[in-house]
Amino acid sequence: MDSTNGSANNHSKTRLQRLRCSVQNYDWGRVGYESAVAKLFEKNSGLEEIEENKCYAELWMGTHASGPSFVVEEELLLGHDNQDASLKSWIEKNPGVLGDKVFDKWNTNLPFLFKVLSIAKALSIQAHPDKKLAEMLHKTQPNVYKDDNHKPEMVLAITDFEALCGFTEFEELQDILRDFPEISEVVGTACVDQVLNCSEKDGEGKKKALQALFTQLMSTTKEVISDILAKLINRLNLESEARELTSKEALSLRLEKQYPNDVGVIAALLFNYVKLKPGEALYLGANEPHAYIFGECIECMATSDNVVRAGLTPKKRDTEILCSMLTYKQGSPEILRGVNINPNTKRYTPPLDEFEVDHCVLEDEKSVVFPAIPGPSIFLVTAGNGTMKSEAEETVSEGDVVFAPADTCICVTAASELHLYRAGVNRRFFGLE
To answer: Could you list the residue ranges forming a coiled coil in this record (predicted)?
Structure first.
């Protein structure tokens, strides 16, 4: 794992490295300065200003080819946007920055991808494949599924945040089928009766009934969906004049305005509608359906961009794959609130090796130490300014992104109230839980 670079680079690979990161302008993103992603990207990239009429959806921090980060020090030597200055290339030249154990498992691949999302309208109903399915999809459709890796992920709310996540409890599902007769019009009474007549204790029967209903719904022609949705929206609009709509009824009206005639508007009724407060998080495992609806968040995941979609999207849909890959687990998702590791920092720990996330808030003139760990980290400053000190001291402020090599102890001091997030390899991977 020895680097072939000279002594100057051997020194640089032990220091903190500033990163210039990539932005994604998906059409569901918030526009211009309404977007936290835009404001962070503007400061991170050194742009004089962003485009005020453009959507800024995601800021990517990591080594994925679809949104690479660049080592600022290397860019000064090699040129702007030179792929040899990318974080991926720099790690390949300096693999020691990952630490021995990380290198032994993932080679020179940074195992996590760190993001900020600014969401104005709903993302697609989607799921991410497990490792085995990812390898198959990548092999058979490499132009669509560009990674052979799984993509479990965690979302941590910066603002109030709305999401659909997993299928509802079975009793709630039965209530939904009674309250929304339009679903029966789409899938047929036999399919609905199979769910309504299922015994609460028949776990396998409930799963099969749900899978049959969901598959039938998602496979229905657009013409039928369009007709039934028109009835649903008309009914809800009339009922809203006489009573306050439930949260899911109101959501149906919102989603239909964003995605007219889309089956996802009806499918959303079957999922848990989750509202997170700032500082709350959700973990989303492989093969679990979800859709982010609104808000801004930090997101971290295993390094992959594989997405299987089937609703609320103009993009390619793989309905058959999505319906066959889901676990069809039911029940409310666990909301993670983090664990205090010191008075300033909360840690969010998902049940996998690739990543964990820390959120740190420092008052003026306060300091906190991030002890050395045997793997790499990426730090993002979202507000305030201060310093980060390892071998040398770096001034940091809003929009700064810093790569910390393995075995680097870092002292952070706030000049004004400082908010930062750290993504790193999960401590359980090193036996440090």
So the answer is: none
Rounded Cα distance, 145 and 135, in Å: 9
Decide the pairing of beta strands 393-397 and 377-389.
antiparallel
What is the rounded CA–CA span in Å between residue 256 and residue 304? 30
Report H helices in 67-141. 72-78, 87-93, 100-106, 131-140
Nearest partner of 377 among 411, 427, 422, judged by Cα: 422
Q: From residue 85, how far is each of 17, 42, 74, 385 by CA, in Å?
A: 12, 20, 5, 26
User: Residue 309 catalytic?
Assistant: yes
At 81, list the tokens: 């946007």
Helical pair 203-218 and 189-196, crossing angle rounded to 10 deg: 150
Q: At 125, which helix (H) or strand (E)?
A: strand 125-127
Q: Using CA atoms, how far apart are residues 232 and 170, in angstroms rounded to an integer?
A: 22
Alpha carbon dihedral 160, 163, 166, 169, in 10-degree steps, equals 60
The answer to the question of whether 153 is labelled as a binding residue is yes
How far is 268 from 24, CA to CA, in rounded Å? 25
What pLDDT score was predicted for residue 8? 37
How far apart are alpha carbons 333 and 272 in whole angstroms? Answer: 8
pLDDT tens digits, residue range 217-236? 999 999 999 999 999 999 99
Residue 305 makes CB contacts below 8 A (sequence gap 6+) with 64, 66, 146, 147, 151
Question: What average pLDDT score do residues 130-154 get?
Answer: 80
Owner of token pair 């909301």:
335
Task: Check the annotation: does 290 bind a ligand.
Answer: yes
Candidate list 309, 337, 427, 428, residue with the active-site label: 309
| 5 pLDDT more than 60 | no
Distance CA 46, CA 75 (A): 13
Q: Is 25 helix (H, G, I), strand (E, B) or coil?
A: coil
Which residue matches tokens 């050194």? 46
pLDDT-above-90 percentage for the chain: 82
- pTM summary value: 0.93
Task: List the Cα angle 198/202/205 in 5-degree steps.
Answer: 65
pLDDT tens, 385-410? 999 999 899 999 999 999 999 999 99
Question: Residue with structure tokens 């015994």?
Answer: 199
Residue type, 383: A
Could you read off the pLDDT of 197-207 as tens digits, one per residue?
A: 988 778 889 99
CA distance 405 to 166: 36
Alpha-carbon radius of gyration of the chain: 23
